[in-house]
Fold each of these.
Amino acid sequence: MGLKVKKEVIYGILFFACVGVPYLGSYELTFGVWSLTTLLTVRNKYSLTILQQVGCFASIFLIALCISFFHEVKTYEYIRDITYMVKPILGLLIGYQLCKDYMKNPLGLVVNTGILIAIAHLLVMVFSIMMYRITDMHKLREYSGYFSDYEVYALIILLFRKEFNLNISGKKYQIGVLLLSVSIALYLARTNFIQLGIFYLALKGYFRINKRSVIIISTLVFVLGASYAAIYSYNPKRGSKGFEAFLYKIKIAPTEPFKTKVRADDWKDFHDNYRSYETILTLRQVPQGGVSAVLFGEGMGSSIDLKRKVWLQTSLMRYIPFLHNGFMTVFLKSGLIGDIILIISILLFFRHKKTDDSRVKHLNYLMTGTGLFLVMSYWVFMGLYFVPDSKSVIIGFLIRYRENVIASLKNPKLIS
């Protein structure tokens, strides 16, 4: 028993390290920590569920790898793309391997990690405001972070603690909800608000088709439509500060990633619809390589020519290897076949066996919510390929935890 407790602590530390390291902003460090953890925690057996997910991303990776043999690629660009394309595979395996059947409170580890990240985020915000006298929302996000999908997972699990049979005290529950809610709210990330909404609806069972869910979803769509109409009518201006700047981002959200024409000579239109600009250029460039490029992409080391230098993150770039749109990135590297496989990886989240157990049922609901959120996440923020993100780790962890719970139901002697 003592050895298991020690191992549980070690795995907990590794889990926190793997989830937390992407927030430091160094992919080299993230890749190193994730690769080492994967090697240190390799299992003897893997379920069909996790192998199907990993297999999808491995297939996308192998297509891009094989196609790159037919193109001249610089060594650095080739290696860089390999490390980026393998990221979802590492994350899924890490999460799956770190969730042990002898852990007494696996979801407590998920929540505690989220709370620690929220505390760190709030401290960075306070430090940035005091040190740099920041009053602008965009500048504050630049210093303290743009989003945190992981914290949303932690918060939703905490909010549904009874359904997940989460062992946590009432006081810690209240403090955790407060810290996570404030932290998530201060990211001012539209995707995180949408993610939280999708997860909440999913865990309430509203994505199961019945009369009640249809009424609720229809009402919600009407309310959201009316709210957007009110914001559009209010007409928040570009360049506004504070909350009005956030309203402006909501105003342009429906068209930002879907425009079919962007005026590159109009800096306002170009900046507001840059995601669409990337997509347009990708859909123009890849077909120029013929049918094979459309089907299988341009392989590792390929990039999109933006036709001009654009300030991205920390430098001016004209040729970009990865886009904001995950579907377009996979299309560039692995073509339509790659995108079809990526869609299959999303559809796998909707396959569940019926169960009467509350934990399993709500884990299934959370997987359904994850699948729905990933559709949007891939379109606007690279999904599981996004460098400063750890969604794949929590997904792999939850897949294994669900399997442990199911196993414990069949054999009550097992600890779940």
Note: The two ends are 15 Å apart (CA to CA).
Amino acid sequence: MSCIPAQQSPYFAGCIEYENEYQNTAGEAMYYAVKPRNWFYVQGNNFKMYDRKKALQELYVGATNSLYHFEQGKAVLVADTARRSAPATINCLATTATILGYPCQMLQLVRGGVSSLVFYSDAVRVRPADFRQGRSSSWYELLQATDGALPLRTISVNAEHGITATSEAIAVRPMALAAADFTTTAPAH
């Protein structure tokens, strides 16, 4: 079920740069003195994420339905037999915001002990069907709920561990990417 109606707009290809912050229940910053960043690249049915050190963290290649996580710089293929998580509870909310000039809608996603507020804009979206076969059912579930709109801000609260994590886009850069950009050795742009 989608929270917003489908719009006729071009699909996004490029990079979204996120800044991340972690706080404890007292609102004090945790883990890092400077907010770490990560870079998310997407084109068609491929995506990849680089961590704060610009090391490849995750890679999905749609043509082969291959999802990789990286451990100490080495690609580890996620087995297709990986357990699927229970479906999340998704609630569309009337709250709106503007992030980097993009008008955003908001939804609440609850899975297990984590509650997340996700802000997304129809102007920055992919085709959800391109990720239907992906091994991350939660990623596809989010794309279905937003009609393919990518998160521009996510605030996740893990009450059990007393942590609030905020990830917010600080740059959205459309760019032409090719299949060669989605390999285990491709550099960040």
Note: The chain is about 5% helix and 50% strand.
